[in-house]
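Moderator note: this is an archived Q&A kept for reference. The question asked for a predicted structure of one protein chain; the sequence and the answer are reproduced below.
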Amino acid sequence: MRNWAGSRSDRISSLAALTGCGADVPAPEKKAAVGSKSALRFLALGDSYTIGESVAEKERWPVQLTTLLKEKDVDVGEPQINPRTGWTTDELSAAMDRAELKGPFKLVSLLIGVNNQFRGRSADEYRKEFVALLKRAIELAGGDASHVIVLSIPDYGVTPFGQRMDADKIAKELDQFNAINKEESEKLKAAYVDITPGSREAVRGKDLIAKDGLHPSGKMYGQWASAAVEQALAALKK
């Protein structure tokens, strides 16, 4: 991994190269593979943390979540994953437009905002665009907010990549963004899973970080899936 000291613009350019961020990249579509004709549909919305940058497909947190659900005899199909590494809130929204997603889904997850913080975008802008995305997620869940799970933004400041930046500033800004997504999730009555404290354990557990030195490992994604399974069960059994 290269030395990340230098100007913020240099770091942004380097991160773009590492993560492939950019709104002009077509949204990938992963069609749901169902276990039976009655399998429940699961849509996962987000960015690199949902696509599972630098880990195998089976290690993505939405995929691990479906494995846990199937172990509990819940007939859920493989997740339809519609993110791209590097996306901000507005880029995710544009990609959803292009994908022409067809609801209703029995379960929808939303994890977005780290790239807004990284690019220096304001908390006010994040609130506005996050709320719009959450409302779209609820619509895709058949208008029932209890079928939507929002995950907090993990803290990349504890990773080798983040440690070469201002980790305290990253933590402070992500806490602000997470206060927003939690508040707005509660207002709209969506389920909320706080994975940020666990993500900070990566400062001591290097096995929680992927080989790229930035993204979570499959082990950490498994922790996120475990944290979300009870809310997912509650939604899918309704």
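Archived answer notes: The chain has one domain: 29-236.
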